[in-house]
């Protein structure tokens, strides 16, 4: 719709007066109706949400109408206390405005209505009200714990209730905002109905910062389910550490920021217990672990019960990179372990000192199975990027391409 020059003057004057406050002067010379401060348009517009202390239903659309013959509405701004704008439509005649998305539950709204009378003089009406709290809420808990991690660490979002509907999943995804380094493409992937992971197309840039927060508080997700407040999370990314273990050559290559800084003779899983191929992410480090075969289903003649030192864990099912002084004679020559990567105590102490949670450990040329994408650690990087994006509820599977309505509904105004 093309605005007339007069309408643009009215809106500009109204905006200027609103920003300068009650003591501001008009836009033009005295006597011009467009130069006056906005008059109180209380008798000119009618709200379907009356002011007062009684909260209103957030699912009931907000509607504002102009009284017949008293002028028209030129603009409406409805914003909650978090700065999120309520999307709406204004009729061509300016006689009615209504919201086009549900309001947030348990929110405080401020509505500013701009009007003009028959002469074009600007009017303004302000309304504030509360919406009723949500009956059922969706909590989001981000992971891992705040701190410093390697370039392979995915972000996680755990939900307290399952979300199965595709449209509801899209709302959840749009409300989970990830701030990534410039130029980094990333996407959420639904692991199951209650868990999402976020990773970039490539590993995180070294020495960068990644943060995630939820803008879902009060937002309607489905039926009576609304988002709850969530604690944001910030991660610091360290060096780009990549470990490549070649199960056929029996050597481990340790790279930092693209430079090989050590090669270590190792032993990996023997036939029947072969180490998993693929990319794994370090889950944590333990100076001492008592390893027993029965905890991973190994008994009989293969049973073991050993004190293990300098252990870096890469799967929940018990795969570690650790000191194995009992197999030094085999390291660099053959695979004799039950799936872990073993090395001398001296080499393990060095590895332990230089590896961090979130670093990449990749196994190649093993006769074992492939690392699972989910459920046994972070195997996220073993999914092709297209497959990863297909796990998003959004069309593009990225943080781009959101509509202006989504931006306003789920983002504070700046």
Please identify the oligomeric state.
single chain
Q: Mind describing the biggest β-sheet? A: 5 strands, mixed
Radius of gyration: 30 Å
Q: What percent of the residues sit in helical stretches (DSSP H or I)?
A: 10-25%
Note the total helix count: 5
How much of the sequence is in beta strands?
35-45%
Identify the CATH class of the largest domain.
Mainly Beta
Form type:
elongated
Strand order in space, largest sheet: 22-21-20-28-23
CATH topology of the largest domain: the name is L,D-transpeptidase catalytic domain-like
How many distinct domains? 3
What does this structure look like?
By secondary structure, the protein is mainly beta. It has 3 domains: 126 residues, Immunoglobulin-like; 127 residues, Immunoglobulin-like (Sandwich); 143 residues, Beta Barrel (L,D-transpeptidase catalytic domain-like). The protein has 5 helices and 28 strands. The strands form 7 sheets. Strands 22-21-20-28-23 form a 5-stranded mixed beta sheet, with no helix packed on it. A 4-stranded mixed beta sheet has the order 1-8-7-4. A hairpin with a 2-residue loop joins strand 21 and strand 22. The longest helix has 16 residues. The radius of gyration is 30 Å and the shape is elongated. The two termini are 25 Å apart.
């Amino acid at each position: 719709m093309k605005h007339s020059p007069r309408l643009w003057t009215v809106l500009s004057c109204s905006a200027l007066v609103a920003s300068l406050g009650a003591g501001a002067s008009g836009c033009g010379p005295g006597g011009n109706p467009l130069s006056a401060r906005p008059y109180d348009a209380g008798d000119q517009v009618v709200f379907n949400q009356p002011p007062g202390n009684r909260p209103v239903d957030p699912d009931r659309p907000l509607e504002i109408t102009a009284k017949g013959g008293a002028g028209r509405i030129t603009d409406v701004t409805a914003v909650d206390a978090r700065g999120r704008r309520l999307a709406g439509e204004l009729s061509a005649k300016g006689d009615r405005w209504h919201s086009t998305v549900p309001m947030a539950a348990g929110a405080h709204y401020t509505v500013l209505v701009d009007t003009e009378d028959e002469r074009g003089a600007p009017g303004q009406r302000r309304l504030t009200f509360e919406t009723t709290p949500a009956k059922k809420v969706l909590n989001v808990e981000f992971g891992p714990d705040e701190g410093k991690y390697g370039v392979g660490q995915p972000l996680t979002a755990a939900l307290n209730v399952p979300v199965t509907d595709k449209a509801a999943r899209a709302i959840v995804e749009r409300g989970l905002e990830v701030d990534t380094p410039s130029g980094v493409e990333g996407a959420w992937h639904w692991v199951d109905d209650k868990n999402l992971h976020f990773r970039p197309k490539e590993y995180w840039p070294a020495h960068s910062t990644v943060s995630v927060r939820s803008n879902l508080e009060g937002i309607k997700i489905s039926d009576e389910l609304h988002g709850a407040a969530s604690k944001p999370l910030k991660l610091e990314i360290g060096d780009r550490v990549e470990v490549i273990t070649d199960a056929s050559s029996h050597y481990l290559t340790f790279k930092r920021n693209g430079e090989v800084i050590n090669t270590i003779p190792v032993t990996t899983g023997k036939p029947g217990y072969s180490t998993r191929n693929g990319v794994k992410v370090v889950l944590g480090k333990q100076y001492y672990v008592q390893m027993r075969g029965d905890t991973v289903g190994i008994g009989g003649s293969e049973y073991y019960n050993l004190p293990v030192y300098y252990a870096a864990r890469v799967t929940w099912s018990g795969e570690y990179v650790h000191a194995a002084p009992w197999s030094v004679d085999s390291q660099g020559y053959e695979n004799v372990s039950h799936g872990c990567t073993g090395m001398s105590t001296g080499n393990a102490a060095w590895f332990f000192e230089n590896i961090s949670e979130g670093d990449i450990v990749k196994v190649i040329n093993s006769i074992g199975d492939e690392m699972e994408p989910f459920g046994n650690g972070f195997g996220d990087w073993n999914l092709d990027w297209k497959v990863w994006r297909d796990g998003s509820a959004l069309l593009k599977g990225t943080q781009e391409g959101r509509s202006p309505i989504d931006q306003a509904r789920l983002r504070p105004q700046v």
